[in-house]
Design a protein that fits this description.
Blueprint lengths: L14 H36 L14
Amino acid sequence: MDAQRIVVVDLRIPFARLVLFFVKVALAAIPAAIILGIIAMVLSALIAALAGGNLDFMMRKWTL
């Protein structure tokens, strides 16, 4: 059986449903950002622990 190609020409979505969808996406992004922040915090703490807790080399001022 041959594959059939389909081209979408028009997509009609009511404005209110589109707004509701984007509100849901925005609300779902908040817990996702919190979870990613926690993961980043744990990873940075792990790197700091493996570096011996001495990260002064990251704090020094660079002069030109």
